[in-house]
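Ticket 4471: requesting a sanity check on a complex prediction with copper (II) ion. Repro inputs:
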Amino acid sequence: MNARLSFPLMPSLLLALAGGALLLQGCSESPEPAKPRQETAQPAAPAPAAEQDAHAHHDTGQAGKLPRSTAPADAKVFFIEPSDGATVSSPLTVRFGLEGMDVVPAGTEKPDSGHHHLLIDLEELPAMDFPLPATEQIVHFGGGQTETTLELPPGEHTLQLVLGDHFHIPHNPPVMSEKITITVQDVE
Ligand SMILES: [Cu+2]
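Returned structure tokens:
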């Protein structure tokens, strides 16, 4: 009886051993495919190139640069209101003026046209050869708006306008207003 029982156990023991060997093989192979994953993770960092370009404020015509729309040399963007040095109360109306070019919505590709961007309390100008980012301090008027209402805390603030083309990229040369300073009075 004992011998009979032990025979059927043998094949299953062999299978178990074989299975273990297969598992070991599987384990020894698995660390290898992990290597290519590390390699692909490394080149995914175009940031250094973008940083370099951010410091180049002039269109050098180099390959790889984004194409920039041209602007007439006499094009002018300016604030209709408020005026530089004005004391205002918040919320205030800001009206944008543009001469020598047309205001069109973002995405509309048309010579000598663009849409307004309002820079609020921005100390350093953004790169002129890249799409302007959209932040609290860089407000896009991609609908082709020529005025807005701003809520600003009391105190001194600076405002500046930059026109951007259909890709939100400033023109070449950039069409930029003077930076104006306004004082928002404390209403309380
Ligand atoms: Cu824009």
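Notes from triage: The domain at 76-184 is CATH 2.60.40.10 (Immunoglobulin-like). Leaving this open until the requester confirms.
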